[in-house]
């Protein structure tokens, strides 16, 4: 993967992409979760890079893209559009893990004509109808709670809570350590503030696949994903031997699901 960057009035956004033998105007774009970075999808890159055009990125306030002003889902969407234009990409398949699924859904809501498929990994739907106020408590107060813990303890406990394999845990821990406590608090406050503003569901005009790990105990992810699938009819796949970072915990099973989904489009 080749590191690149895109400068805007709000900051510099870093992304990574590959060269493939056959020219294409379609790419798979991977959106990592809150406080993670592009390395969350290393296992997918290794599996797919020889055959498919890929883009991983540190979306604003994460990884190398941290010096960023005026964070909003709309501004993040504009950054991705600029990256796609720079890479001569017209159509994308979006893969969004956790809060990366919020980034993906926001992009689909605004630029749905560019998206030919969406896979959610341990993410939850836009739309206030899915959520009780009591269940949103931890989202509203995440930063205040996280601020109370010594950061290395928080990083170790946090990484362990959302993974089941040692390799996935180490990867997430490293991302948290690089981001730092200030970075975590800034990103969480900005992302959850945007999420809480969203009132309505996204109207998808592309195929959707919902997935989560069988051991995912993050918030009410399982409940929301099941309700999302029940309400919309979107297919739901539970990834075995995996937690919240299911695409890393059991990357072999996830990669097979991903390939099958891509080939069905």
TrEMBL record:
A Pfam family recorded for this sequence: Abhydrolase_1
UniProt GO MF annotations: hydrolase activity
Family matches, as Gene3D superfamilies: alpha/beta hydrolase (3.40.50.1820)
SUPFAM superfamilies, alphabetized: alpha/beta-Hydrolases
Entries under InterPro entries matching the protein: AB_hydrolase_1, AB_hydrolase_fold, AB_hydrolase_sf
Entry GO CC: membrane
Alphabetized UniProt keyword annotations: Hydrolase
Domain spans labelled AB hydrolase-1: 27-153
PANTHER family the UniProt entry points to: HYDROLASE, PUTATIVE (AFU_ORTHOLOGUE AFUA_2G14860)-RELATED (PTHR43798:SF33), MONOACYLGLYCEROL LIPASE (PTHR43798)
Name the record gives this protein: Hydrolase
UniProt organism field: Sporosarcina luteola
